[in-house]
Amino acid sequence: MKIALLGYGKMGKEIEQIALQRGHEIVLTINDTNLEDLTIENLSKADVAIEFSTPSTVLSNIDLCFKASTPIVVGTTGWYAEFDKIKERSLTEGKALFHATNFSIGVNITFHINKVLAKIMNAFPEYEVQMEEIHHTQKLDHPSGTAITLAEGVIENLDRKQNYADWLNDGSNEKPEVASDSVLIEALRQEAVPGTHTVSYVSSIDRIDLRHEAFNRKGFATGAVVAAEWLKDKKGVFTMKDMLSF
Ligand SMILES: NC(=O)C1=CN([C@@H]2O[C@H](COP(=O)(O)OP(=O)(O)OC[C@H]3O[C@@H](n4cnc5c(N)ncnc54)[C@H](O)[C@@H]3O)[C@@H](O)[C@H]2O)C=CC1
Ligand SMILES: O=C(O)C1=N[C@H](C(=O)O)C[C@H](O)C1
């Protein structure tokens, strides 16, 4: 498969290694030093594009891939406010889009358990739910896309929670008070952490933690390449649940 890598930073480079190991060819790599190569003509030479760039560049990259009719796998986070518009456009124009806030199998298993646990906790109002995400200091968005997906899983299944609140705990501010129907997501930034997410249920007598810790970026990168292989000849909008069998 011929792959275009839109975003050739930490994730783009990790994806390149996995793609080559799986027998694919990288026909285009884009970062902020060669944007002149980011053309519809170049994109149309790829069977699929894998997009891990920045929250401020992802939408124009999706637009270019749609114009080139190149299926696109999007891992970039921090753009989901625009998701409904992009989905609508993809469906009406017959394009192919695969998106996920987290491509790792371990996190997707965690997403599933999180929903089951939230449903169980309806019967136990003495537990308060809270969330924490820890990432490297270069991360541009907060809370992480994964934390938002976890919060959505709680909100869909735990009747006493209706929304989430974001707290970037960088030492300059106090823990905010949040309404009782809100899940607080605490975002911490620490040197070189690939991504750690914890959903906690805390009562006055004990605490239950559901925690996923990525040791490196291989899980994210492998998931993105497998998603690209899966997407290649499809049209429509897909995510990990469509590809995984649980
Ligand atoms: N869904 C998932 O499983 C994962 C998602 N991510 C997300 O992927 C994104 C990228 O993460 P990293 O690789 O760690 O960031 P990074 O900062 O290391 O790399 C971003 C790259 O995008 C490039 N870039 C800037 N403008 C561009 C443009 N117009 N078109 C294409 N590339 C452009 C930059 O030069 C840089 O090379 C972030 O939004 C992050 O949250 C990261 C890991 C896993
Ligand atoms: O920026 C990152 O690094 C990561 N971003 C994704 C997110 O926002 O959830 C996925 C992973 O946690 C790493």
From TrEMBL:
Pfam families membership: DapB_C (PF05173), DapB_N (PF01113)
Domain Dihydrodipicolinate reductase C-terminal: 106-244
Residues annotated as the enzyme's active site: 135, 139
EC number: 1.17.1.8
Chief localization: cytoplasm
InterPro entries per UniProt: DapB_C, DapB_N, DHDPR_bac, NAD(P)-bd_dom_sf
Entry keywords, A to Z: Amino-acid biosynthesis, Cytoplasm, Diaminopimelate biosynthesis, Lysine biosynthesis, NAD, NADP, Oxidoreductase
Binding site for NAD(+): 75-77, 100-103
Biological-process GO terms, alphabetical: diaminopimelate biosynthetic process; lysine biosynthetic process via diaminopimelate
Gene3D superfamilies: Dihydrodipicolinate Reductase, domain 2, NAD(P)-binding Rossmann-like Domain
Catalytic activity: (S)-2,3,4,5-tetrahydrodipicolinate + NAD(+) + H2O = (2S,4S)-4-hydroxy-2,3,4,5-tetrahydrodipicolinate + NADH + H(+); (S)-2,3,4,5-tetrahydrodipicolinate + NADP(+) + H2O = (2S,4S)-4-hydroxy-2,3,4,5-tetrahydrodipicolinate + NADPH + H(+)
GO molecular function, one term: 4-hydroxy-tetrahydrodipicolinate reductase
Broadest EC class assigned to this enzyme: oxidoreductase
Binding sites annotated in the UniProt record for (S)-2,3,4,5-tetrahydrodipicolinate: 136, 145-146
Domain spans labelled Dihydrodipicolinate reductase N-terminal: 1-103
Places the protein is found: Cytoplasm
GO CC aspect terms: cytosol
Pathway assignment: Amino-acid biosynthesis; L-lysine biosynthesis via DAP pathway; (S)-tetrahydrodipicolinate from L-aspartate: step 4/4
Family according to the record: Belongs to the DapB family.
Biological role: Catalyzes the conversion of 4-hydroxy-tetrahydrodipicolinate (HTPA) to tetrahydrodipicolinate.
Oligomer status and interactors: Homotetramer.
Protein's recorded name: 4-hydroxy-tetrahydrodipicolinate reductase
Gene name tied to this protein: dapB
